[in-house]
Records
---
Amino acid sequence: MKKALIIGAAGFVGSYLIRQLLGDGYQVTATKMPQEAIPGEGFEVRDLDILDQPAIAALLGEVRPDCIFHLAAQSSVYLSWKNPGLTIDVNIKGSVNLMDAVRSLDYKPRVLLIGSSEEYGHIAPGETKIAETSAVHPGNIYAATKVCQNLIGRIYVDAYGMEMMSVRAFNHIGPNQSPMFVVADFCKQAAEIEKGLKEPVIRVGNLSAYRDFTDVRDIVRAYRMLMEKGAPGETYNVGSGHAVQIREILDQILVLSKTRISVEVDPQKFRPVDVPIVEADTRKLRECTGWERRIPLKQTLQETLDYWRAQTAGRDGGFVVSE
Ligand code: A2R
Ligand code: GDD
């Protein structure tokens, strides 16, 4: 049985990746920050702060994984504007700590580094879809940290012959995502309005942007396939290949909701810079692994809204709800 180590498994993607790998017959060790919890059983959970390099080395020496999924990050573009120092520490220094600890081992586990479509930055509508060969133009601190991770990853592969691949993940969504991100944010607001917990007004940011959304379960299946089949030193886009405008996402959620909701644009939710369109060319991923998206966007939106409805169950609000 193959041993997988997931670093940063207490977040959104981690819970799905744990389930995917256990289902595929892997033995899983999952790391979390000391203050976090990971629900579930059938796998080993360890504390790890990736800013603590000796702790990474000790854990690798003990677990001796066949493969390592590196998810740990400060993952919010929005927060990277608020806290650039932390974003740089975790996403660059933390990743280098991991790569260096892996390099020092007496064997070569396979490693998957999770980067972001944000690395491509500003792409003119005529330049989409974005292939891995496109130039990177990071337009925010988060994106710049992921570009650094990718570049340093390739340097480690070239210099030390490490078995390491990178992905550039496009937007992924689903139940249990933090409401810092757009789909979870809109679904949470809609569920609270349905329950009368909030006035019937949904507050939104920039609705004109287009993003390439994929269900997180499809995303983690791609990660497992790339871990097994990806070529060291290569970068793979992981996304649906179809960009949807945020306005369209909002409209679909409003249709799924049972209540009459008005929309208010909140200038506080705008970013200093927001890439207008992000759409993946996924040929490299599909040719390498045979991956195809399985879960349609509408299903993910429905399940995410239902998740937030369940979160509000048992809470009573004072606002009047009209159908
Ligand atoms: O910040 P926390 O306490 O929620 O922990 C996060 C963890 N993390 C760390 N783990 C070890 N050492 C650190 N210094 C450290 N700082 C943060 O990484 C959290 O448990 C995990 C990231 O989870 P999420 O923020 O929910 O990200 P998600 O959506 O699971 O994305 C996974 C990867 C990231 O590399 C993103 O940048 C990329 O996919 O889109
Ligand atoms: N969060 C949020 N809330 N975003 C909004 C809102 C709102 O109310 N209204 C409009 N948006 C727009 C944002 O301006 C952005 O253009 C788009 O919705 C998506 O925003 P997020 O869901 O916050 O995601 P992101 O694209 O900034 O970053 C996510 O995707 C990246 C991959 O492309 C994160 O998951 C990153 O970790 C990931 O790398």
---
Amino acid sequence: MPNERVRKLRTAIGELGAEAMLVTNGVNRRYLTGFTGSAGVVLVTASDAVLLTDFRYRDQAPAQAAGFTVVEHGPNVYDDVAGLLRKWGVSSLLFEERDVNYATYAVLKEKFGSTELKVSGGAVEKIRMIKDESELAIMQEAADLADRTFSHILPFIKPGVSEADIALELEFFMRSHGATSTSFETIVASGERSALPHGVASDRIIGRDEFVKLDYGAYYKGYCSDITRTVVVGRPSAKHREIYDIVLEAQLHTLENLRPGLTGREGDALTRDVITRYGYGEYFGHGTGHGLGMEIHEAPRLSRTEDTILTPGMTVTVEPGIYLPGFGGVRIEDDVVMTDDGIKILTRSPKELIVLD
Ligand code: ZN
Ligand code: ZN
């Protein structure tokens, strides 16, 4: 009984003029099969769906990969794939050119004989862009966990505590409430370091009258959340308030106006135009957002070069920022899902400037 994801992949295989697809990417393997093991490949044709994995997963793979024929492969999985291709008479096979390195490609060429290899152009990633209801339910839970973590961490943020201590407490909370891990390396950037867009938590001790920027996420049931909030410890200066208010205005303006039918480029312009109007365009050097799901960065992006049209079911972040070297920076980030007529916001932590004393 093929699942809906396999059915979509079969359509894509046909549209790409091939007879089968070999899936080597581990995230795509899990997406298609539900199998959470760390090794194996998937082979899909118009009538067959096979998961080839090794003896370590003899029990787990058949239990998880409903609808798939599970094959325990020999010393080299590609010998087993070649055998199936010969048996089925497959003449053209899509492979994942973004995943297969040159050495593996040489092995495929050698072992697959007369079967023609064709690039898949990210066929599974394209299907993954549109989340189904079960995925959105998990992503909401992952976002809820990020929100609970934000309220939990606020009392820990004070002068004299290191960024690393904050990161540790935050990660411990997420792990103890169901996260498998963080969805990326936790950013806690205080004072001047808050001007670093990717200021991973350091040993710096948080001082007074400065920004603390937190950017973190839970990796939960195979899906990522991603949130950024910036707070002030001590008394905010006029400059702190000025750039905070501009970033907040840009972020809220975008949440109000983002809708399906816009391109990723138009989505990016929603934040960028506001920040540029206030004269800070050159201090916002990254894109407005990125797709997220099973991976922390996936298609589509909200950026100046993204032509993808935003479509219901896509999940993206909205994360404008202003970074002033030597002073500090602000970013505010939420996760949203495109709906039929607008967006639903998944992360709900407060956004008015929080001043901690
Ligand atoms: Zn983030
Ligand atoms: Zn992000």
---
Amino acid sequence: MRFDLVTIFPDYFHALDFSLMGKAQETGLLDVVVHDLRDWTEDAHRTVDDSPYGGGAGMVMRPDVWGRCLDDVLAVGPGAAPRLRRVLAIPTPSGVPLTQRIAEDLAGANQIVVACGRYEGIDQRVADRYRQDEVEVLEFSIGDYVLNGGEVAALVLTEAVGRLLEGVVGNPESLVEESHGEEGLLEYPEFTRPRCWRELDVPEVLLGGNHAEIARWRRDQSLIRTAHRRPDLVAELEATHLDIHDREVLVGAGKILVPRRADVVIGLARSDEAGALARLAADTFPMACPPQLGETDIADFIGVHLSESEFTRMLADPDDHRILVARVKARDGGEDLIGYTVTVLGGPDGMPTEMVRPGRLELGAAYLSKCYVRAEWHGSGVSGALLERAVVDVEARARNSQIALGTNIANKRARTFYRRHGFSVVGRRTFEVGSVANIDDVLVRKVTPVVG
Ligand code: 6GU
């Protein structure tokens, strides 16, 4: 591959004599030729620019000087080899954004000529004329900021394309596992020795040899980073490439993709949300009930346990009743509550004593008494994100070593969900809904209190 870099500052490109680009030039994988545009001027002052037609600040580079130069460098016209793939790349802040995809495409060219403009740029007819000469013309930008000239962008293009040529980068594997890979996710963070540096520890999971766990952690980090740093990339993600765990992680980072794209925030319920919580609870509670339960029994339960005044009471006691909600931006600009959890941290009447199973369920366990998401958002990952946030919240309060819950034995969906989140069945309890005594599985998960 041959690069011809045309500039009025040839010294800029000494940078390409170092490191992998320097080695690629020495070994002949890469041929970089730098040209001084002023060699194609014809006046004593070696002038390359003039004032813009139509007025305005700054100077514009003359097409006639560029034309003589590019004719020579591209060897267009009679005698040119037509099968060669030639590209004229023109750096400009108004060009198309340079991407890895474009770099990969350009790596298949035979010759790339980069025309570095200074001042306000190059007369537009230069790009337009060479397009007619069966040269691929690419006006490109390297980001949304303004540089003084195209030289730095030319360096960027040369390195981005050059490193993709076979043999330039020693280990070709390092070309595939990088940010902006096939998946469209940013790379996960990397760590090396020392294990503890300035009181910062390397994440524990990376120190063990559990490769599945490490892969999972790294993917989580990639998803979270991408959501926080590059929402534009999240918008491009293919929902079908994301499993339920991926979706839960993305929800924790503020992004829902399924069933429709939305921004979501999980946080503690506010004291003025008792009414909204009661409505959400009344809408979602019936879904967890077994089919044989009558409507009046369900309505009785909702009236007694899920009333606005019950939520007001719980919200007034945030030390013991932790209520987390998931909020999405509503179409009218407001917010909708789409899911919630209630965790009772304990104290004398915290854990329902009928749930306690000595040796398996501790008296001091936190009790996840509610975890519900509106039916239209099932499969979004919101419930898993809420549950994991509830666990973190329990851990942060450092009062409990377990979290326990009950779910109707007929609710297979719930049992599968809680198992996937590290819960296991330790026994059963009865759970009254209206006049009916139902049988629940009791499930438990260990939590690790955060000390300090
Ligand atoms: Cl390619 N050229 C200049 N002058 N400024 C830029 C740019 C290019 N890309 C971003 N800013």
